[in-house]
Specification:
alpha+beta, about 250 residues, 4-stranded antiparallel β-sheet
Length: about 250
Amino acid sequence: MAGHSKWANIKHRKGAQDKKRAKEFTRAIKDISVAVKEGGGADPESNPSLRNAIANAKGVNMPKDTIQRAIKKASGADAENYETVTFEGYGPNGIAIFVECTTDNTNRTVASVRSIFSKNGGSLGTNGSLEFLFDHKGVFTIAKQNLTQDIEELELELIDGGATSFENETDFLTVYTDFNDFGKMNQKLEDLSIETKNAGLQRIPLNTTELPIEDAIKIMNLIDKFEDDDDVQNVYHTLEITDELIEALNKDQ
């Protein structure tokens, strides 16, 4: 799953830009709104989905008062009615792309996603056509500087909470669970008083394709166009993220 981790790190570095930070805040506010509407109300003590959304908002450094305003708005009579929709398609060179959106206007979102695919050498497919290429996993990113436990001992304890694999990097420990064990791991981390940088259900590619740098950059530019769309929450793909690609992308910043 190293490719997934590298892509997360690229997004983390790009997140320093004001534009990316604004998008992260928009995502977090939508997640809070959906959690309040679908997860059981505005009290995080009784709404695990909202607790998770708040933790993720804190992970992108959203101010506490902004989080509270988002919760208040989501629980009011004039709250936005969001729904989650997904799209599947191919980019150039056969790279599979899975797009998750949260929107208050499905027609607008469909038109926008289709346009991004078609204008960048890709094609929108039918729902379910690519889902088998990704494994739906719980993914928890933990900043190692916040940990007091020995990493190896912690990993053994997290296996009891449903962890199936780990990525132990310089600054972060990433924990993976099966889809059905996401809530169990959330509870385990809460019991251990461990805060996550980010936690959520993500689609991990089962296989990835390495492309020449020039072609790979075109795919990443396409991914950026999806990421910049206000309705898009997450984008997953089957491009192999190599060290050379990371270096080339960093030069462009």
